[in-house]
Amino acid sequence: MAAGSLPGGGFRLSHNGTRLHHYSFLSTFARHAIVNERSCIGLPAGTDPDVAALIGCAVMTGIGAVINRAKINPGCSVAVFGAGGVGLSVIMGARVAGAETIVAVEPVGSRRALALELGATLALDGNDPAVAQGLLDYSHGGVDYAFVAAGLASLLELAFSVTRPGGMIVAIGVPPDGSAVTLPAPQLVRSEKIITGTLYGSARPAIDMPMILRLHAQGRLPLEKLVGRRYRLAEVNEAFADMRSGTFARAVLRPWADRTGTGG
Questions:
Q1: DSSP per residue over 119-187, as a string?
Q2: Tens digits of per-residue pLDDT, 126-175?
Q3: Which of 91, 140, 189, 256 is most buried by a 10 A CB count?
Q4: Pick from 258, 204, 210, 259: which is nearest to 52 by CA?
Q5: Are 91 and 83 in contact (CB under 8 A)?
Q6: To which H or E segment does residue 80 belong?
Q7: What DSSP state is assigned to residue 65?
Q8: CA 170 to CA 151: how far, in whole Å?
């Protein structure tokens, strides 16, 4: 994957004689792609392609962190730092898995509102200096599980501080290269907190993705609410700008709309 090739090591794309790479064994922002059959998951008839596009990354990462890596217990308390597509998927996964208390920590107001709609029991402003105390008060001394969906080292430190002794901190978002986390060393021993990471939700794609689609079909995962707007491929730069501003939880590009002229 790091080489940008297909699973077998080959390359199948080029532009004006220059080799192009297959990001994560795939190719994106294109109308057509060459994909190894090992990277393909069959979709049940009637699957909404917009929802399927979300499952391929953000949803699998967030829900997988809950059910595969943390394996949370029913009745537990959960904090989620970052309420973008991944963090909101953590919230939905925690709700389906039976968490009783789910706290979203997010600086963007519209995303906090969506977090509450999708199952959070409380949404706190990530820019509030008192957010840690608010979390401790609401969870009666610390949450059982803290999921860090945004790639900020400082959030890992915050998550550690609001997790109860024996609890688990799950790092999902990837901080920038060269960044480091500083934790109180004595507490690493005395508190017995577990700090772990998860890559792509520790996914078993052939098992987990159909399961997520079944939960959506049953009405237990309202994934369609993540889609804030649909864009034609020609509007990709606008989609990126909206993503960076936090306008929507997730944007979906529809390359086929460019061919039909129907737009989003």
A1: T-SEEE-TT-TTHHHHHHHHTTS-EEEEEE-S--HHHHHHHHHTEEEEEEEEE-S-PPTT------HHH
A2: 999 999 999 999 999 999 999 999 999 999 999 999 999 999 999 999 99
A3: 91
A4: 210
A5: yes
A6: strand 77-81
A7: I
A8: 12
What b-and-e string marks burial along 91-129, b requiring 16 or more CB atoms within 10 Å of the CB?
bbbbbbbebebbbbbbbbeebbebbbebbbbbbbebeee
Instruction: Give the confidence band of 250 by pLDDT, cuts at 50, 70, 90.
Output: confident
Global pTM reads 0.90
**Alpha-helical runs (H) found in 13-120:** 49-54, 60-64, 85-96, 109-117
- Compute the half-sphere exposure of residue 199: CA atoms within 13 Å on the CB side of its CA: 1
- Both tokens assigned to 258: 């460019």
pLDDT tens track for 41-71 = 888 888 888 899 899 889 999 999 999 999 9
